[in-house]
Description:
By secondary structure, the chain is an alpha/beta fold. Helix content is 40%, strand content 13%. Strands 2-3-4-1-5 form a five-stranded parallel β-sheet, with helices on one face. The two termini are 22 Å apart.
Amino acid sequence: MRLSEKYRPACWSDIVGQDKALAKINRLRANGLGGRAFLIVGHSGSGKTSIARLLCAEVDPTGWATEELDAERLTPARLAEIERRTASRPLGGGGHALIVDETHAMSAAAVRQWLVATDPIPEHVIWCLTTTRNGEESLFGNETGPFTSRCEVISLTRQGVTQPIAELLQRKAILEILDGQPLSAYVRLINDCKGNVRQAYAEIEGGRMLAKGGGV
């Protein structure tokens, strides 16, 4: 198993450096996370899908009613089918949770159908959509405004994350006996990877952090 999957955040305390995003989620949690669409915006490897899965887990604790959808393959017919199927709660309780990665790849027709399908969103349904494009930028031309207005936008920051991520990477590298350099080397690593934690883990797996050291 790749380190990026082995150490994918499994709980909210595993998310580092995104205090503002987590604070917004906590405020929304007070009124329930179901019945909402979340647009999670951040650069590659910033933890968008991990946060989406954690959000979905609160609405669908068992995980059996959670679906991860390919944005490019979301057709109007597929969305209409999802709307019909999620209109009622799953057998056994809980809710329906839907994740769409790289949301900006949705077709114009799919976006229009999604707007229909989410007007309104049932209280037992949650949509988590991720994108590397800033929520204020034009995602879908004229449909951008209606789309983003339907969502709670969770923006992941690049500011102030280097140090906590470097500390996290060093801890995991030590656990894997793949550490051979001081913390400053991990700071350089995450900067070299432009904040992409997945890429940084791949560099560690490739032995980068042992290159100048002798292990632990």
